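Today's session is about reading a structure prediction critically. Students often jump straight to the picture, but the first step is always the sequence itself: look for stretches that repeat, for charged clusters, for runs of hydrophobic residues. Only then move on to the predicted structure, which in these notes is written as discrete structure tokens rather than atom positions. Here is the chain we will use throughout the hour.
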Amino acid sequence: MMNNMPTVTKNLLIINFLAFVATWVLELRGIDLTFLLGLHFFLASDFHFYQFVTYMFLHGGLTHIFFNMFALWMFGSVIERVWGPKKFLFYYICCGVGAGFAQELVQYANYIMSDLAAYQYVNTGTVQMTTDAYINLWTTIGASGAVYAILLAFGMIFPNERLFIIPFPFPIKAKWLVMGYIAIELFSAMSGPGDGVAHMAHLGGMLFGFLLIRYWQNHPDSSQRFGRSRGEEFFANMKRRYDQRQQNRMNAEQPDARRETDEEYNARKRKNQEEVDAILDKIRKSGYDSLTKEEKKKLFDQSRES
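Below is the predicted structure for this chain, in token form.
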């Protein structure tokens, strides 16, 4: 299974697993890796900028890392095959950092509303400590923000792909799954703190992912630079301009072309969806590299339309 997994997804899984093992081993020796590499509140004395990256490779327990890595494997493998390794890694890191920024903003709002700056000591109910020591406890870890962004990308690229999700006995379209997760995270965040989960970091990762994907859709040239040389970009732009001229010429030669009826439109959409479903099945079975040029173009065109 690991041999068929895309490079970046596989390496991210390995790094996260090694970091989890290192956290457990070093803890036995009295070294708290979470305290060193986890993302602290930016006003705390132990905050460092590198924590915006390192925090997303740490996890708080077996359940935490299992579900994050399972989602990374399930959805990340598909997205990396569609986008390529460079674009996928850029997206993953950016959304993880974005999730960290979102969490920092939420913590800052809590800091202001609690008026902690006015106090030198804080009484937690069980112990009294300095304010600096208290805000140093506000530490975020986990790849959830980046993983939620990958889930969003899957829902935006393959909105009508049907997924079986426990405990539902019927398939759910990816777009409804993403919306459901957003609603759950919003509800959980508004219900108040206390569950130990950084819900706003999850939503922040999805927000950064949405903005990044929309930017790429509106600026396709910037998206295509990932993994392409300048020469390839030049010829790709030449081909697009040629295709556009050909299309304009055909439209000019057929000014009175009959409009497509609703029945014809629906039949064409069904046929396109059947072809895309067949391509997705082929990706799951044999990987993205097994697609022909025509199939890759079909998948790209369909994602643009969605």
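Discussion point for the tutorial: The first helix runs from residue 7 to 28.
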